[in-house]
Write a structure and sequence with these properties.
With 84 residues, the chain is an alpha+beta fold. It has 2 helices and 4 strands.
Length: 84
């Protein structure tokens, strides 16, 4: 599976599992038996947008792009770029 297809599948399949909307895919890497993708999800929508709370999830996928497991690894406000 190509990376673009993999990301598109993840963006479609993952949000319903945790009932959040995706913001962006921030990292992707190949593992021994699949892929590991870091995706930021909008945990809490705020006004202004710079105060949105984003959750970064690390998602493990098999070679076909199916979700094996995931975990939330951090939270941040959209406007907080100090850790990036």
């Amino acid at each position: 599976m190509e990376v673009t297809q993999l990301v598109n599948k993840l963006v479609t399949d993952f949000p319903p599992l945790i009932n959040l909307k995706p913001s962006s895919v921030v990292a992707i890497s190949r593992s021994e038996d699949g892929w590991v993708v870091s995706i930021e999800m909008i945990e809490k929508k705020s006004i202004p947008d710079s105060m949105d709370v984003l959750a970064c999830y690390e998602v493990s996928l098999d070679g076909s792009g199916n979700i094996r497991d995931f975990s939330r690894v951090r939270l941040r406000r959209r406007g907080d770029t100090a850790g990036e």
